[in-house]
Design a protein that fits this description.
heterodimer, A: 567 residues, mainly alpha, globular, B: 204 residues, alpha+beta, Heat Shock Protein 90, 5-stranded mixed beta sheet, 6 helices
């Protein structure tokens, strides 16, 4: 029954040297040459190896002392796109800590093995898993070329031809469809699978899709069905909470999440969700605890965000614990050093904390720092953070004006001069920020409204308002010029204008989508080149997944077809 | 640390050390290795039972069910005893539907089926058949053999020390698999297919 492991490439991830050695020995006894085996002593080394190489089989220990654990290695490598569907990922766990909680994670490994295991158990398990994964390399290749259509096409062919179980293939197909927001097609697979067997991944998938389609009540039925089968399935609880939130049942949502977090606390996303829900419910104590866990879990994680820290400091400030908030922000600054865009938010929070502590000088310094970070930004700052900065600067301007007006006597004139200078500076900054946000979100009415309000508050002159409007008008003109050229059949000219604008306005969805459309027009007219493909890809990649509407999908399908033609 | 934790850890260690010893025995080509292979497996099986009993007693016994292919159970149970089956020239038939999935605790069911295989070997079977299939609203695992059969009372009692415990435990483990009103069942009966004994597990 021994299954030949000879042709496969292995990666062994374990922090214990002796255990790595014993696994290598086990494999070499199965005639795997040592040149076919790579080893890593920690998660970071493993991710580096995965970036460089392709493996057939990964054996990864769950508990690895300091640093990332096995689950993080799995999640991060999948999210970085360096772990394909064709690779078998086996999580190795200690017998005393049984899979239990491990098995219900969003990203499940292909299988688990409990230490110690024999060569024959390993090869029995691998035999089935490799058979399930057989032929998936072409699917991974298609996905690497951003062609999910072709990936789906290959999968369909494999499903048709496979004589053994095709559940794994169906699961992967549904996964790809879901990620690309083809919700109806994914829902069909989940429901067809459920009609054959009540498999939990299909039931959970059905719930997720219904949630995304905003059919929350129906989604809840699916999540409840999962929990009825397996009470320990806390991922179902997370989703249930999301659906309850959408139905405005915040209290229940928090209760469900708390239960999940008590049973299985080591999940960053869950703690963050719990923190946010508790904060919304006004339960600051629970929010604080959950934010603290979020920060702790983010320590070695790719998924850590500055809002983990600022959320915590926010909750602390709401409890008047500003000093504590400041020490959290200090940690955040350390953790996000070298990322000025992220630091805008921490500086703004510091400003608020110092204000609460009655330390206006420190508060002013923090605001200054926020401005500096904004000017050094390494990527677009979120609109709400940028607008908050503008609003704080406006506030400061008013305060300085008030002080100058109130001042009397000898110092009054000097103070007034200083205030004029500062006011001028701040006004220019606010103008710059509002202009930038306008460019990136020219067609978002909610954001434009906030910008108008801020313009009012900062006493913008008519001239300045005109300038701001002209920024908006410029984007509108660029877009309409491009579109009308396109409609006249002048696709090259259209693409030139729009692509140049798209490069400059990376956050602008409309411009990027239209630029992609014009570039595809050029391809249709003049034939496909690598450069045109790269440019189209750049524009399409800048559209975030939640904005993948029908127009996006149509353009992406077309794009895929040309990629295939080229390659 | 509690005494009970200490005992559990000690049991784990014993089992793991025995595992290493078993591998060494299996890899020798000595003529008389069969009795050693057998008795080491019996002790391993007993230690495993003890550990599960211990967890039940401690109330730390929880099922870890996942949706997995049914084939995993017979294949892994067979893999565990493969060296012994080979050296004893016992024929093993594996019958399972690769498309069938179940929702079950794999390590526990594998140990119940592996225990069944060991019983069959001890009943001097020459052929053992392992099956896994969907049945009714659940799934079914069987071990059939052509050994001495259930009615060979005297022989059975001398066959396996502590056989009763293994079976009792198997019943508990299987019954712990519940769904709605239904719960798992374990039965022992004459094998229609092979003439010896059939161990049959059904879980909802």
């Amino acid at each position: 029954m021994d299954f030949p492991l000879k042709p496969y490439r292995f990666l062994i991830i374990d922090d214990f040297g002796s255990y790595r050695t014993s696994l290598v020995t086990m494999l070499t006894e199965a005639e795997v040459s040592t040149t076919q085996i790579d080893t890593a002593a920690n998660g970071d080394d493993a991710l580096n190896l995965l970036r460089e190489n392709k493996y057939d089989i990964i054996l990864c220990d769950f508990y690895m002392g300091e640093g990332k654990d096995g689950q993080q290695v799995l999640e991060e490598s999948r999210s970085l796109g360096i772990l394909g569907y064709a690779t078998v990922f086996i999580m190795i766990t200690a017998e005393t800590a049984r899979a239990m909680v491990l098995s219900v994670v969003e990203n499940r490994p292909d299988d688990y093995l409990t230490k110690p295991f024999t060569r024959s158990v390993l090869s029995t398990r691998l035999k089935r898993l490799l058979a399930e994964k057989q032929g998936l390399e072409v699917v991974d290749e298609a996905l690497a070329q951003k062609s999910h259509k072709r990936a789906i096409h290959y999968l369909d062919k494999m499903i048709e031809e496979r004589t053994g179980s095709s559940y794994e293939l169906l699961r992967i197909k549904a996964d790809i469809l879901e990620k690309n927001r083809y919700f109806d097609d994914a829902l069909n697979i989940y429901e067809e699978t459920l009609a054959l067997q009540p498999l939990l991944w299909a039931q959970l998938g059905r719930g997720r899709i219904l949630f995304n389609l905003k059919r929350y009540e129906e989604a809840l039925v699916s999540f409840e069905a999962v929990l009825e089968e397996n009470d320990a399935h806390n991922i179902a609880r997370d989703w249930m909470a999301r659906a309850l939130m959408a139905l405005d049942q915040g209290e229940q949502a928090q209760q469900v999440l708390q239960e999940a977090a008590d049973q299985s606390p080591r999940v960053l996303k869950r703690q963050k969700l719990l923190a946010t829900v508790a904060q919304q419910n006004g339960d600051l104590e629970s929010a604080q605890r959950a934010f603290e866990s979020t920060v702790r879990l983010g320590e070695h994680s790719l998924f850590r965000e500055v809002s983990d820290f600022t959320g915590l400091s926010d909750v602390l400030m709401n409890q008047k614990a500003s000093q504590k908030a400041l020490s959290v922000l200090k940690r955040a600054k350390k953790s996000f050093a070298g990322e000025p865009s992220a630091l805008v938010e921490t500086s703004l929070q510091e400003n608020a904390a110092y204000t609460q502590l009655g330390k206006p000088n420190e508060a002013a310094k923090a605001l200054q720092k926020a401005t500096e970070n904004f000017e050094k930004r390494d990527k677009a700052v979120d609109a709400d953070v940028a607008l908050k900065l503008a609003s704080k600067l406006t506030e400061e301007t008013r305060k300085i004006e008030g002080e100058a007006d109130a001042a009397k006597g000898m110092m009054a004139e000097a103070l007034r001069q200083k205030s004029d200078k500062k006011r001028e500076q701040n006004k220019n900054l606010v103008k710059g920020i509002l202009g930038e946000v306008t460019q990136q979100h020219h067609n978002n009415s909610e954001i434009q409204q906030q910008i108008d309000t801020l313009a009012d508050q900062s006493d913008m002159s008519d001239e300045e308002r005109k300038q701001l409007n002209s920024v908006r008008q410029e984007v509108l003109n660029l877009n309409s010029d491009g579109v009308s050229l396109y409609k006249q059949g002048k696709v090259v000219e259209a693409s030139n204008i729009l692509f140049e604008a798209a490069e400059r306005l990376a956050g602008n969805r409309v411009i990027n989508l239209n630029a992609a459309q014009a570039l595809l027009g050029v391809i249709i007219k003049q034939g496909v080149t690598q450069e045109l493909i790269n440019q189209t890809d750049a524009c399409l990649s800048r559209i975030p997944p939640e904005d993948h509407d029908d127009k996006y999908k149509k353009l992406h399908d077309l794009f895929e077809r040309f990629v295939q033609k080229l390659g | 640390m509690q005494w009970s934790d200490l005992v559990a850890n000690q049991l784990h260690d014993l089992k793991n050390q025995l595992g290493v010893l078993m591998q060494q025995i299996d890899s020798t080509q000595a003529e008389d290795r069969i009795p050693l292979q057998k008795s080491s497996r019996l002790i391993h099986d007993d230690l495993n039972s003890l550990l599960i009993l211990f967890r039940m007693d401690e109330n730390s016994f929880k099922l870890d069910r996942m949706d997995l292919p049914l084939c995993d159970v017979p294949e892994e149970a067979a893999a565990r005893h493969e060296p012994l089956l080979e050296s004893s020239a016992i024929k093993l038939q594996l019958e399972c539907d690769p498309d069938a999935y179940g929702f079950y605790d794999r390590p526990l069911l594998v140990s119940v089926i592996a225990h069944g295989v060991l019983n069959a070997i001890n009943a001097r079977a020459k052929t053992i058949r392992l099956q896994a299939k969907l049945e009714g609203q659940g799934c079914c695992f069987c071990v059939d053999d052509d050994g001495v059969g259930l009615n060979a009372d005297t022989e059975q009692s001398e066959r396996i020390p502590g056989a009763g415990v293994g079976l009792l435990l198997g019943k508990e483990v299987v019954a712990a698999h519940k769904r709605g009103e239904q719960q798992g069942e374990l039965t022992l009966q004459p094998s229609e297919a092979l003439g010896g004994t059939q161990l049959r597990l059904w879980i909802p």
